[in-house]
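Journal club prep, shared notes

We agreed each person brings one worked example of a sequence with its structure written out as tokens. Mine is DUF2306 domain-containing protein. I'm keeping it raw so we can talk through how to read the token line rather than staring at a rendered picture. Sequence first:
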Amino acid sequence: MNDIDILGTPIPNAGPVFLAALAVHVIAGLTCVIGGAIAALTHKGSPSHRRFGRAYFWGLLIVYVTLTVMSAIRWKENAYLFAIGTLAFTAGLTGYLNRRRRPAVHILGMGASYVLLLTGFYVDNGPHLPLWDRLPAVSYWVLPSLIGFPLIARALARRRRQDASAQA
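Then the structure, token by token:
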């Protein structure tokens, strides 16, 4: 089967189930990118943070379910993306389940899942994106981590300072 070209991005023509899963996957992925960014930028514990954090998590669940469907259809081509997605969902689930009890685990889990989500996106789509298509392939794998993990470390340090101030 020949690929379908949408806005310069080749889409595998792997049948209607694959294409339907991909359509839902893209919408859920956009929900994650926007919801995750807003949750990260809003005051922790605020109604906005909780609302957008929930949108991120449920979007991540849908991304993972649709990834699983697409990977089952095209395992040979998608196995590495399934591995990244499994790590992203596991990190996100860990963060979500620890949102009240262990704030540092929440920050680390949700942040790592966001970094992994973006890594999967760029590894799969970077060669077809303007400007990104000029970067070496290794950059798709490392740039999200090089940007994201220092921000996660900063959020963890800020949380430790808040906890220390509250105990003083």
